[in-house]
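Dear Dr. V.,

Thank you for agreeing to look over these. As mentioned in my earlier message, I'm a first-year student in the group and I'm still getting used to reading structure tokens, so any feedback on how I've presented them would be very welcome. I ran two proteins. I've put each sequence directly above its structure. The first is here:
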Amino acid sequence: MYEIIKHPNINWLGLKRPFIFVSVALLLAGLISVAIQGFNLGIDFAGGTLVTVKFKGTRPSEDKIHEALGKQGIDAGKVIIQPISDPTTGADTQVLIRLPLREPVQSQTGSSPSVGQVKAAPAQKTTQTPGATPTSPQQGGSQQAGGALTGAQTTQPAASPTTQPPPPTPAPETATAEGGQLGEEKRAILAALETFNDPADAANKADLNTVGRDRLQNRLVETDPLELVKASGQATATSEYARYADLILDYRDQSGGLINQISGLKNVPNLPPRLVEALPSHFYAGNAVMIGAEIVGPQIGEELRQRAIYVTLASFVGILLYMAFRFEWIYGVAAVVAVCHDLLVTLGIFSILQEEITLNVVAALLTLAGYSVNDTIVIFDRIRENLRFRRRDDLTALVNDSINQTLSRTILVSGLTFLAVLSLLIFGGPVLHGLALALTIGIVVGSYSTLAIASPIMVWWQQRQELRARARRRSEAGRAARDIKRKVAAS
């Protein structure tokens, strides 16, 4: 095997005191950071809002989306934007927006509101539209009514300083708590998406991609492009325009929640061409639409945290059993202690840097556990091989030689892995940032603990057992000598 360092002769166990100091310093720094500022838990654990947005044509850059959200009072620094492909066409036209959970506020009665209830916008009144059509099966189970999901509200001046949530209805738009966090975030995101439309259209017309059924019907009745009110009366006109509104929304749903051109409505059966020709005077097809929105509550986040802890503990038990079966149980204990050291140091650095902890980070930590153990097994395997031929040698010298013999392999494997995860950290983007950072830190700390933690623990225990065995032999020899003296004296 190619050797990076020719014939290394490093006294690794002689450096155990500096290594202990470094490890204790890192662990204490992480512990202090956790005590002072805690962890920056992501949506997966702390709860939050997940919103899927679809754009017409080429989607804007993530920076432009962040800028638009920031103008609506959303902390863009805590928002994660993940580009995704359209599941039906494969086009890169969608993004998944992750927003953190807001802190609940006290209600007027002094009690804390329910999960997701937040302070409403002070100068707006939300109008609900309970008649949206359901989504098509192809659009996914959690996505609601295509663009109609985002058209559930229009804002207008109101005297009331707060918005009261409406009573629940079976309609998709009101199935979620519009007066709570989800409705608050949707209003802000809707306002942000409007900035990607033509200002002239947005000022005087309604967006056909975000308007809800009732709003669409009312607008058709108000403008009366077919002059049905004059010809047949208000009731008949309202009924007819309601049917036309359903046809338009059905077409929108079948188009993946977004109408590219209003002229495409000419192909809709039973929709009068005269109505289609009149629509551009009062409506426009916006460039973006919200096609899915859901909230992850704190209770779900707590359950995910508990599962992550259980999975990690289960991995420790598995490592201990495997190492005890393959070597001795002390080897398993040493490996588990080293893995705990790696995970705690990595989590401590995440707390210090206030990096977000998500399920991706948990996956990275579990990967690190297996990676670190694999490196440790290589050294323990070499120690076991050397023990077959050098049983009378000093254990400290034997372990030092074993580490030096596998040093080139450790540097090659860890170095190449480090370069791979470092490139992922640099070029992987914000979605993979947490996973790549955890792997980058863990590779370095794991390689260090393999050399500086696992082997010294094993040597310390073996030497401790040897001292106990010597003391036991001396005690037994002393008792035997006393027994002989008593027998001689008795005879």
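The second protein is here, in the same arrangement:
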Amino acid sequence: MNFLSINMNDFTAFIELLKSQGKVQVLSSPRVSTVNNQKAVIKVGTDEFFVTDVETDTNTTLNTTNQSVNVELTPFFSGVALDVIPQISAEGDVILHIHPTVSEVSERTKSISVSTETSLEIPLALSSIRESDTIIRARSGQIVVIGGLMKDQQTNDVAKTPGLGDVPMFGKLFQHQRERKTKSELVILLRPIVTSGSGGNAWNEQVRQSAERIGRMQSPRPDTTRR
């Protein structure tokens, strides 16, 4: 994982710099407040429930056997989570303990035998996690950039001639397969601001201005094409 501290007033300039290197998508722009040495947590994603335990009970009465199945479900988080613990030094700098996590959960079906004649198809969770842990030191108002959480993805695209590409036996002659590889990187921008007393009003104003700037960047640009 890589990180650096930069002297900028807001995130907009650095996001524009990232756009010059490739496609950029802003996943979230949350703001949280906490106190010294207390954890702040940010989570952007969804929880999905998967089976984590299966119990079967068998009861036999009057030559009759009854079976019951108890299924336990557990939530699995998919998305981006960020834990930050700030510590303010005597010089007024902020020491940040940062723990970002990127998790992706997919479904995998497994067959479980309940009895000699009965089986269950259970949807299980297959989790992929990318995480890191670091401690950095920054000044109040300074932007911290964290990167290095990479992801490689490979997809196969199939292009075919309409109609002819679906002909049995000979359809593959009119098809073209293309392998596409993409690489993405999660970049986290943090800006710790130390506030005390009336300084909270200034912080709220800075948050409002930053939200407006990022909102304008995410808004679609007007079509200027002459018709």
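From my reading of the second output: The first strand starts at residue 2 and ends at 6. Residues 221-227 have pLDDT under 50 and may be disordered. Does that match how you would interpret it?

Kind regards,
E.
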